[in-house]
Amino acid sequence: MPKPKQSWKEINGRKSQRYAEFGREQELLVETFLRDAKDGEENLFIEVVRTEPNSPEDEQGCDFIVKRKVNDLILERAFGITISQKRRRISKGMHDAPQFYVPIGFNTDRFLKKILDLFESTQ
Fold it and tell me: Tens-digit pLDDT profile for the chain (123 aa)?
Protein backbone atom coordinates (compact mmCIF):
# COMPACT_ATOMS: atom_id res chain seq x y z
CA MET A 1 0.00 0.00 0.00
CA PRO A 2 1.52 3.38 -0.99
CA LYS A 3 2.25 6.05 1.61
CA PRO A 4 -0.20 8.94 1.64
CA LYS A 5 1.24 12.13 0.18
CA GLN A 6 2.11 14.87 2.61
CA SER A 7 1.06 18.41 1.93
CA TRP A 8 3.58 21.23 1.73
CA LYS A 9 1.79 22.80 4.68
CA GLU A 10 2.58 19.74 6.82
CA ILE A 11 6.18 19.60 5.64
CA ASN A 12 6.77 23.33 6.22
CA GLY A 13 5.01 23.13 9.59
CA ARG A 14 7.45 20.49 10.76
CA LYS A 15 10.37 22.53 9.43
CA SER A 16 9.12 25.60 11.30
CA GLN A 17 8.83 23.52 14.47
CA ARG A 18 12.42 22.25 14.10
CA TYR A 19 13.72 25.78 13.50
CA ALA A 20 11.81 27.08 16.53
CA GLU A 21 13.30 24.35 18.74
CA PHE A 22 16.80 25.06 17.46
CA GLY A 23 16.26 28.79 17.91
CA ARG A 24 15.27 28.25 21.56
CA GLU A 25 18.46 26.19 22.04
CA GLN A 26 20.51 29.05 20.60
CA GLU A 27 18.73 31.48 22.94
CA LEU A 28 19.76 29.28 25.85
CA LEU A 29 23.40 29.33 24.67
CA VAL A 30 23.31 33.11 24.31
CA GLU A 31 21.70 33.47 27.74
CA THR A 32 24.44 31.33 29.30
CA PHE A 33 27.11 33.35 27.49
CA LEU A 34 25.64 36.69 28.63
CA ARG A 35 25.26 35.50 32.22
CA ASP A 36 28.91 34.39 32.20
CA ALA A 37 29.86 37.89 30.96
CA LYS A 38 27.74 39.36 33.75
CA ASP A 39 29.22 37.16 36.48
CA GLY A 40 32.79 37.09 35.15
CA GLU A 41 35.78 39.08 36.34
CA GLU A 42 34.85 42.15 34.30
CA ASN A 43 31.17 42.24 35.39
CA LEU A 44 30.15 43.59 32.00
CA PHE A 45 26.45 43.67 32.79
CA ILE A 46 24.37 44.42 35.87
CA GLU A 47 21.44 42.29 34.75
CA VAL A 48 20.61 39.89 31.92
CA VAL A 49 16.99 38.96 31.21
CA ARG A 50 15.81 36.46 28.63
CA THR A 51 12.21 37.25 27.73
CA GLU A 52 9.62 34.49 27.71
CA PRO A 53 8.70 33.00 24.32
CA ASN A 54 5.57 34.65 22.87
CA SER A 55 5.60 37.37 25.55
CA PRO A 56 4.82 40.97 24.55
CA GLU A 57 8.57 41.73 24.60
CA ASP A 58 9.29 38.71 22.42
CA GLU A 59 6.60 39.80 19.97
CA GLN A 60 8.40 43.17 19.73
CA GLY A 61 11.63 41.40 18.75
CA CYS A 62 13.28 41.59 22.18
CA ASP A 63 14.68 38.20 23.15
CA PHE A 64 17.09 39.68 25.69
CA ILE A 65 17.29 42.76 27.88
CA VAL A 66 20.70 43.67 29.32
CA LYS A 67 21.56 46.40 31.80
CA ARG A 68 24.98 47.99 32.10
CA LYS A 69 26.48 50.82 34.12
CA VAL A 70 27.87 53.56 31.86
CA ASN A 71 29.18 56.86 33.27
CA ASP A 72 27.34 56.30 36.57
CA LEU A 73 24.07 55.67 34.72
CA ILE A 74 22.33 52.33 34.48
CA LEU A 75 21.32 51.81 30.86
CA GLU A 76 19.07 49.11 29.46
CA ARG A 77 19.24 47.70 25.94
CA ALA A 78 17.01 45.09 24.32
CA PHE A 79 17.76 42.98 21.26
CA GLY A 80 16.64 39.89 19.42
CA ILE A 81 18.50 36.95 17.93
CA THR A 82 17.71 34.59 15.08
CA ILE A 83 19.30 31.55 13.45
CA SER A 84 18.14 32.61 10.00
CA GLN A 85 19.65 35.35 7.82
CA LYS A 86 16.32 35.68 6.00
CA ARG A 87 14.39 36.02 9.26
CA ARG A 88 16.90 38.62 10.49
CA ARG A 89 16.27 40.80 7.43
CA ILE A 90 12.51 40.51 7.93
CA SER A 91 12.71 41.18 11.69
CA LYS A 92 15.00 44.15 11.18
CA GLY A 93 12.23 45.88 9.25
CA MET A 94 9.50 44.88 11.69
CA HIS A 95 11.11 45.75 15.02
CA ASP A 96 12.90 48.74 16.52
CA ALA A 97 15.13 46.49 18.63
CA PRO A 98 18.39 45.41 16.98
CA GLN A 99 18.33 41.87 15.55
CA PHE A 100 21.44 39.67 15.50
CA TYR A 101 22.14 36.56 13.44
CA VAL A 102 23.47 33.82 15.73
CA PRO A 103 24.48 30.72 13.72
CA ILE A 104 25.82 27.42 15.04
CA GLY A 105 29.23 28.00 16.60
CA PHE A 106 28.85 31.79 16.61
CA ASN A 107 31.91 33.90 17.42
CA THR A 108 31.36 34.90 21.05
CA ASP A 109 33.92 37.73 20.99
CA ARG A 110 32.30 39.35 17.96
CA PHE A 111 28.83 38.85 19.42
CA LEU A 112 29.87 40.44 22.74
CA LYS A 113 31.31 43.43 20.87
CA LYS A 114 27.97 43.92 19.08
CA ILE A 115 26.14 43.91 22.42
CA LEU A 116 28.60 46.34 24.00
CA ASP A 117 28.30 48.60 20.94
CA LEU A 118 24.61 49.04 21.80
CA PHE A 119 25.80 51.07 24.79
CA GLU A 120 28.43 53.08 22.87
CA SER A 121 26.16 55.91 21.74
CA THR A 122 25.81 57.08 25.34
CA GLN A 123 29.46 57.17 26.35
Answer: 666 676 766 666 677 777 778 878 888 999 999 999 998 888 899 999 999 988 898 888 899 999 999 889 999 999 999 887 777 777 777 788 899 988 888 899 999 999 999 998 654
Burial code of 97-117, b = ≥16 C-beta within 10 A, e = fewer? bbbbbbeeebeeeebeeebbe
Domain that holds residue 32: 8-122
Residues in the chain: 123
> What's the number of domains the chain is made of?
1
Q: Indicate the pTM of the whole model.
A: 0.79
